[in-house]
Design a protein that fits this description.
By secondary structure, the protein is α+β, with helices and mostly antiparallel strands. It folds into 2 domains: 96 residues, no CATH class; 129 residues. The protein contains 9 helices and 9 strands. Strands 1, 2, 3, 4 and 5 form a 5-stranded antiparallel beta sheet that branches. A hairpin with a 2-residue loop joins strand 2 and strand 3. The two termini are 19 Å apart.
């Protein structure tokens, strides 16, 4: 048989969910791999879209442990014998821990103008240095500009920490677990994943809407989900390649 891509793992009883998503179930004991057959010449971008589509469609009704994108094996027997069998206990434990739960991801972006205005207003040192830089020719203020950039970056990082801590405090009580990713770039305010009981996703979305109202004008929030628990899969599944 041709090479097989493995996208995730669910219980053996979820064959219909896998096939309904357009995938193929490779069953070993109590487990089923969410798989698809490799097609020569498929672009990486298309493979990634298929990976997400299979996982997210299956996870709409089934509990899923996502597997790292790009996981490919020699055939069905290899998936069963080399992936599912050696990890059966770990994967069953993960499925049990994730049962009935989905990921809700919240991303926040600053209004850059409002952010910089608040940074300048909140720091006399930055305001004074900014005034000095603006009064000097560019060539004569080289080091002051570098220093100004450093001060602004430090203040932005402190603001990001405060805002992220506030948001997580608002949303954590509705979540089972939280995974915060590093936010990079001036505009990035927060990037966090929340593991939420499937029957509390509407409540979680309302809490995000309420937080967005309080942050309006400073931070724009975007909610993604329900999703498979990408950020909460154990290393035994995610690290396989």
């Amino acid at each position: 048989m041709s090479e097989v891509h493995v996208h995730g793992v669910t219980s053996a009883g979820e064959r219909a969910a896998i096939e309904g998503a357009g995938g193929r179930a490779i069953v070993h004991g109590p487990l089923a791999a969410i798989a698809s057959d490799a097609v020569e010449g498929t672009r990486a971008a298309d493979l990634m879209r298929r990976h997400w589509q299979l996982l997210e469609t299956t996870a709409a009704t089934a509990t899923v442990v996502p597997v790292q994108f790009g996981t490919a094996m020699a055939g069905d027997a290899a998936v069963a014998d080399e992936f599912l069998a050696p990890r059966q206990d770990d994967l069953l434990a993960q499925l049990a821990a994730l049962e009935g739960k989905v990921q809700m991801t919240v991303k926040g972006s600053y209004d850059e103008t409002a952010l910089l205005r608040s940074v300048v207003a909140g720091s006399p040192a930055i305001a004074n240095l900014r005034e000095r830089v603006q009064s000097l020719p560019e060539a004569a203020s080289h080091f002051e500009r570098i220093r100004l950039g450093e001060l602004v970056a430090a203040e932005v990082e402190q603001a990001r920490e405060r805002d992220a801590a506030w948001l997580l405090a608002e949303l954590d009580p509705i979540a089972v677990a939280t995974s915060r990713e590093a936010a990079s770039g001036l505009e990035a305010a927060v990037n966090a994943a929340f593991l939420v009981e499937r029957d509390r996703t509407a409540e979680f979305a309302r809490a995000v809407d309420a937080a967005a109202e309080q942050l309006a004008g400073r931070i724009e929030l975007r909610l993604l989900g329900p999703l498979p628990p990408y950020s909460f899969a154990g290393e035994g599944a995610r690290a396989w390649a």
